[in-house]
Amino acid sequence: MGRFGILATMTIYGYNMVMKQARIAELKARLSEYLRAVRRGETITVLDRETPVARIVPIRQPGLRVRKPASGAPRPSRILPPPSDLKLDSLELLLEERQGLR
To answer: Given phi > 0 = left and psi -120 to 50 = alpha, else beta, which region is 33?
Structure first.
């Protein structure tokens, strides 16, 4: 076996990809090494008696980033329209619509 146990080659969308595989006992004994490989972007498939049971994949960071608006961007109060002065009962309008009166 190589440095990371079993290596499996698979083809995805025309690209060859090497996926590392490790048995549970080996993973437990060398967890730090496997986690360093995952940090580098590699995927590890965990095997239980040659049967794949889990996959350790890198986290894609970040999913959502909040940033300050660009300089010169309008304030949110300038983007939203001002509140309406109409005296409407939204519940009454909704009921009318649902009853087919509108």
So the answer is: alpha
Distance set, CA 101 to CA 4, 73, 89, 91 (Å): 70, 44, 15, 14
pLDDT one digit per residue (tens) for the chain, 102 residues? 455 565 554 544 455 555 789 999 999 999 999 999 999 889 999 999 989 999 999 987 766 777 888 888 877 666 677 777 888 888 888 888 888 765
* Extents of the domains making up the chain: 6-56
pTM of the model: 0.47
Radius of gyration of the chain (CA): 28
Number of CB atoms found within 10 A of residue 6's CB: 15
Return the amino acid letter for 100. G
CATH 3.30.2450 is the classification of domain 6-56 = no
